[in-house]
From TrEMBL:
<feature type="domain" description="N-acyl amino acid synthase FeeM catalytic core">
    <location>
        <begin position="36"/>
        <end position="192"/>
    </location>
</feature>
<dbReference type="InterPro" id="IPR054597">
    <property type="entry name" value="FeeM_cat"/>
</dbReference>
<dbReference type="Pfam" id="PF21926">
    <property type="entry name" value="FeeM"/>
</dbReference>
<dbReference type="InterPro" id="IPR016181">
    <property type="entry name" value="Acyl_CoA_acyltransferase"/>
</dbReference>
<protein>
    <submittedName>
        <fullName>Autoinducer synthase</fullName>
    </submittedName>
</protein>
Length: 252
């Protein structure tokens, strides 16, 4: 049974890399791109029956926070998924998870920890099956953010039935047990992954999550620092997997 699982995992790892060859990431900044993201969020949430009960729009104020990073994932130049990532620090506490789990989030921050809080995960229903690579490649920037910002924890506020996956795949621990939310009208639970341990273990299993430092700078550097307009960024996982790559040195 373990052998079969290993073969399956190896095949899926190859599938992730092969799919990533046709993926581009775009930091969303223009009005037109944000409208596309809003439409995609609506389609994805409606298909999964998780539309926020009180939402008037699929965009909100913290989409535009200075430490929020909204990404579109393009497959063969078609927008197929999106994710928003918050870099949360003791001095900048804007966080999607804090809306439900404020006590737990503040406890992390009061202890001096820094966090990566992914939110607004949405995949076009056509690409959302468990066998699809796209949900995994959509969360790839969360690992990149944890490395770029050298964060202590990566959060997951999720429905309880998904917690087993995050414990297995992202080595996450339960921080807050299932809690009923008024925003969504169903239960959510909060998990957290230790990012430095996650980085080593996950990238050994799935090289598609590797990245070069310059890709991370393009994804998370400010436009002023980069002196560049918003870019569509090509993944660098295959480059990062070369024996002479600094990433491989980190994993040894």
């Amino acid at each position: 049974m373990l052998v079969n699982q290993s073969i399956s995992e190896g095949n899926f790892s190859d599938k992730l890399l092969a799919t990533l060859d046709h993926v581009e990431y775009r930091r969303i900044q223009s009005h037109e791109d944000f409208e596309d993201i809003a439409r995609l969020r609506y389609r994805a949430y409606k298909a999964r029956n998780v539309l926020p009960v009180s939402a008037k729009s699929m965009l909100d104020a913290i989409d535009f926070d200075e430490q929020a990073y909204v990404f579109g994932v393009y497959y063969y130049e078609q927008l197929v998924s999106t994710l928003r990532i918050h870099h949360v620090t003791p001095d900048h506490r804007v966080s999607q998870s804090a809306g439900v789990f404020s006590e737990a989030i503040n406890a992390f921050l009061d202890a001096g920890l820094t966090l990566i809080d992914p939110a607004r995960f949405a995949v076009d229903p056509e690409f959302a099956s468990e066998r699809s690579a796209m949900p995994y490649l959509t969360v790839r920037p969360t690992i990149m953010a944890a490395i770029h910002f050298d964060a202590d924890r990566m959060l997951q506020h999720i429905r309880p039935q998904h917690s087993a996956f995050y414990r297995r795949f992202f080595y996450a621990d339960v921080v807050v047990p299932p809690t009923m939310t008024t925003t969504y009208g169903f239960e959510l639970t909060l998990l957290a992954s230790p990012t430095r341990e996650l980085r080593k273990r996950l990238m050994r299993r799935f090289p598609a999550f590797q990245s070069e430092a310059y890709e991370r700078r393009l994804m998370f550097g400010s436009a002023a620092d980069l002196a560049l307009p918003p870019l569509t960024v090509l993944p660098t996982a295959r480059l990062a997997g070369r024996p002479d790559s600094p990433e491989m040195a980190f994993l040894r």
